[in-house]
Amino acid sequence: MNEKQASSSLTRRSALKAAGALVLSGTGLFFSQAWASPEVEKALEGLIGSKRPEVSPRLKLHLPEYAYDGSRVPFSVEVESPMTESDYVRQVHVLSERNPFPRIATFHFTPRSGRAFARTRIRLAMSQNVIVVSELSDGSVLTTSKWIEVTLNGCKED
Amino acid sequence: MVTPTIRVKSPTEAKRGSVVEIMTLISHPMDTGLRKDKEGKVIPRNIINKFLCVYNDEMVFKAELHEAISANPLIQFNFVAEQSGTLELIWHEDGGQVYTTTRELRVL
């Protein structure tokens, strides 16, 4: 009787573990991201389909930690890449978590770009995460994000 | 419609194979379609939605811009100078207007 109980509890434990692992692998990094707001997810689905972006330190997102005026926040992004015909960065999508429109910009690069770098100025409505998703020529998708504090809404005020 | 002022910072000469940096600025309100004027009427959306850089008839850089790009959009990017030629910078505005400018680059 004791033996039977022990074995049944073991199987139940392992079954629970397996279920847990399944849930974790199924949702993966994508949903564990703090920024996964429904608008961003929808926009991302339109851009990269069902692919799951991988958080990577190869993406460098330069954004101040704090911006008083959200109407022109300096922004630049660089992806570490050799930028050769066989290995280069195709696209970099910039998304915002809490702006009225989730898409900020998409930069397209070619091996002739030499450097996967772009700089611009962006509008941010409030404190939020700015998300960068990069598509590489080998089909992999990398991402990173950065939190920024914004005082004045850059989308409605002058 | 005011013709936008375009400013471009680009080198006139570059070593073969070196990465050159181009900085562009175009004066444009980038109206998002969310703001209202003094009478409370919505200012319709009017933005620069696309920027292209063509070098010797080959596209080297493209940017799709949305409402969240600041007024007077600044765009800085790089490309590899392989041979001397003409750099063509093209801005597409909502409604189909296109603004272009060219710069010569001599590769040594």
From TrEMBL, chain A:
It comes from the Bacteria. Gene3D superfamilies: SoxY domain (2.60.40.2470). Residues 47-155 form the Ig-like SoxY domain. Pfam families: SoxY (PF13501). This is Thiosulfate oxidation carrier protein SoxY. The lineage of its organism: Bacteria, Deltaproteobacteria, SAR324 cluster.
Automatic annotation (TrEMBL), chain B:
It holds the Pfam family SoxZ. It comes from the Bacteria. InterPro entries: Ig-like_fold, Ig_E-set, SoxZ, SoxZ_dom. Residues 9-102 form the Sulphur oxidation protein SoxZ domain. This is Thiosulfate oxidation carrier complex protein SoxZ. The gene is soxZ.
